[in-house]
Known about the structure:
heterodimer, A: alpha/beta, three-stranded antiparallel beta sheet, 11 helices, 35% helix, elongated, B: alpha+beta, four-stranded antiparallel beta sheet
Amino acid sequence: MMKxxxxxxxxxxxxxxxxxxxxxxxxxxxxxxxxxxxxxGNLSSVGSDTLNNLMTLWAEEFAKFYPNVNIQIQxxxxxxxxxxxxxxxxxxxxxxxxxxxxEIQAFEERFGYPPTPVGTSIDALAxxxxxxxxxxxxSIPEVDAxxxxxxxCGAPNDITRWGQLGLAGAWADRxxxxxxxxxVSGTYGFFKDNALCGGDFKPGxxxxxxxxxxxxxxxxxxxxxGYSGIGYMTSGIKALEIAPDQGAECVAPDxxxxxxxxxxxxxxxxxxxxxxxxxxxxxxxxxxxxLVLSRQGQEVVVRxxxxxxxxxxxxxxxxxxxx
Amino acid sequence: MxxxxxxxxxxxxxxxxxxxxxxxxxRWRYVADFSAGWMVRFGGGGVVIALALIFxxxxxxxxxxxxxxxxxxxxxxxxxGADEAGLSALALERYGxxxxxxxxxxxxxxxxxxDGRLLREFDLSVPDGVDVVSxxxxxxxxxxxxxxxxxxxxxIVEHGIELDFDGQQRRVAPNPRFPLGSEPLQVDPxxxxxxxxxxxxxxxxxxxxxxxxxxxxxxxxxxxxxNFLTGETEVTRRDWTxxxxxxxxxxxxxxxxxxxxxxASRAGRLIYWDISNPDEAVVGDQSAATxxxxxxxxxxxxxxxFSWIVGTSEGRLSQWFLVRDExxxxxxxxxxxxxxxxxxxxxxxxxxxxxxYTRKGFAAVDAAGGLGLxxxxxxxxxxxxxxxxxxxRAVGVSPVDDRLVVEDDRGRILQFDVWNEHPEVSLKAxxxxxxxxxxxDPDYVWQASSGADSFEPKYSMIPLTVGTLKAALFAMxxxxxxxxAGAVYTAYFMAPKLRGYVKPTIEVMEALPTVILGFLAGLxxxxxxxxxxxxVFTVLVGLPLSFLLVAFGFSRLPAGFRLxxxxxxxxxxxxxxxxxxxxGLVALxxxxxxxxxxxxMRQWFTDIGITYDQRNALVVGIAMGFAVIPTIFSIAEDxxxxxxxxxxxxxxxxxxxxxxxxxxxxxxxxSPGIFSAVMIGFGRAVGETMIVLMxxxxxxxxxxxxxxxxxxxxxxxxxxxxxxAVNSTHYRILFLAxxxxxxxxxxxxxxxxxxxxxxxxxxxxx
Lengths: 323, 766
């Protein structure tokens, strides 16, 4: 099953990476990974769907160096990571958002110290529409007015027709079919906080179990609109440019704007790990993070369509982890 | 003769068992009978016990939600620096080891929570000749406090802590921070004393609003920009003078997005400033918050800073928030203040309100020594009692809501342990309309989680229950006519040989995994239907019409030709008809759209105001109908088939036509069976998970529009249970959803059984 899934992903990735290959460049200042001896055991990861492909690819890369390591990766949604880390059923918890304090609390009650987030790559959360949709750019308040009932980002009116976004002709009277992730997802939480300013989704949104099904839904509906990590882009959909505010300049989701923080929906993708304070990581975890934060690991990020960490950031994270 | 023969034969050649073996067999039979009897009893009892255990387990997970809050006093001591007069503020860290206290003079002391021992003290770096004149705290989770100085500047402090790990030992160490530097920040450019203050930190902006001693209102914003690559922070400062309040304000509160400023005058007037564009700040809505002779004694934003609590001298507490004016003629983004709900009245004047860190609850203390724990969303007062015989002047709650400290007017601190796990739940919050923060009206909403703690969870069971019934209803609308009519035809009219093929085939459909049905429905059927909406209607009308036409045509055929088709095989003629008609109508569908609907019926729906979702109740109805048809068909067919032959034959012999026999004899006699078939099918449709999960958008809407989706109880449990923290309120509410589901199926099945038995009693005399 795992193999089959991986194969499917790899195929999809091959398609996706063709588009974005040119975007990201791995910083040449990153160190090259050198394997060490004596690494074995089980590498299990439970968490984000956005990071699922990435974790799989990293794990494959890891297995090339350490064939004795058993690998298991589940990706239902970021919210599944904290319970798995807390209960000890996984040693890595990939998350596309930071943990809520209630989640940290559950972990602390068990171990006495908080879990450690490790930034691994950058994502530009993309708002996407069907490829035949002529729209190019939306502002955050407009996104908010399309997706939410509360309009906390300050849009004056609810938006229910594409015409309200300036489309003409047959598009003027078309309504929206809104695709969203479900509540397990970190992408859902991030989008809610940043694109809806903490407001509520409309009740009529279509909640999908994974990013791939959001993409699939938007591909199938001419009037569809949805969001997912940039790594899930396919040819059936179009990622919109986003303006941080009404009347501000539109910013395309790409490596440069995301890394500089210009793109309003850029975020770090984390992998949480259970690290005892003031003690080094276990060899397996240590080597995994050394790989992820190396040139090879960041090349995988580019291959998956996400944006690699700049070398200074990666070096800072390595330093914090004591690698 | 016989006897002689018998006697002649040796006893063991007898074919009858010997007395001894008879006894042995009897004993064995008795044992077998006895054990079988007990096994049956055990099995039956086991089923009942298992059901009861499920019920008890579900119930035991739900019960803690019904408990209110309880508190228990742990310690009592004099606060460090208790001799200093005036206002103080208290805070706790989440480990329950260290407490923090701000004194009116701007001193921050960290003390051990168990005995009040002073751990460390920090004094603000106030320049010589300048006094601390006012103090305000920000949203609790920012851990910020601001001190206003007499020279128009302010200092922002964070009462942070640091965790120090010494081997396995955890130590909580004081670690105050100055996010914008420890030097005073200029708030009033004219340098007048800041009398009333408010502070709030947004994403990368900290705002300080203040009323100066000459009655002006000033706002300063300190923008922080952190370089993503280097981690360095730079601060920019801007200030504005806001419109003067109609009367001086005693309390100020900012929202975290720095778009609104709320002020309260002591006389009881609430004033709202729209400062979303500070250059054009305006005084917006004003509202009286108190009765005659009553004054406002406290004003605090709840977690998230979307709503605020007003406390009065009469001990009244009310929650308010801004609601957008959507009335016709109102210009864009005009907000009104709305008093949303009131809480139980305290015996004395409210002296301090402390919101919880991650929920919409708050603790309030009053001048009569009373302490109350209240919760916004559910409008519950979980605890209200007099805990001290002196007036209380400060209260602090733990970030994880398990501890609480209060301080009386002489500086004595009381520390309490708190159990307050599920304040979000009340009967009204689950089943009634609730007015959630920032919404236009009270509503039924299910939206249980988000990525941030400032989120107000919305746990209305109504959308889920309605969704469950909606899915089951449309599935039954599709399945019932097909399954029952099919069962009657198969059992009564069909040739036995053909029936031998048809019945097992339909029953095999039952084995089709529902996940595959859901998959097909979501990925293939839903887009297909969206593109061929007219076909749905034409097939619905056209197919039965074509049957009638074919039947009419068949009856007009020459007898010789007609008789070639054996009795009971007529249905087979319809097979090519069904295929042809459906294909024809689907092929016609684009033409119909062009002729009547301007090219797109989907768009026509939008234009006349009908919402159309691709993954809707129609798709679910068809897919789930497929899943329940075998169940209903199989049981109903058995019921019809087992109608005693003498009844039907008697009816036919008396001259009734086969049709009359079916409608007046067979259906009535089989009605108990058909009814229980329908009910079992309904029970299955209510509990079905995978199809709804995959074929709908899981949108928690409250309507019965066939072209919109739904979110059912079971699909909701499947989606959300993996993400909930064990024993959290959300977790327990999902168990409650399970309990509701269990109760609904239990109820439906019980009613079905009662009705079936009555029907059977009535028609058994036939």
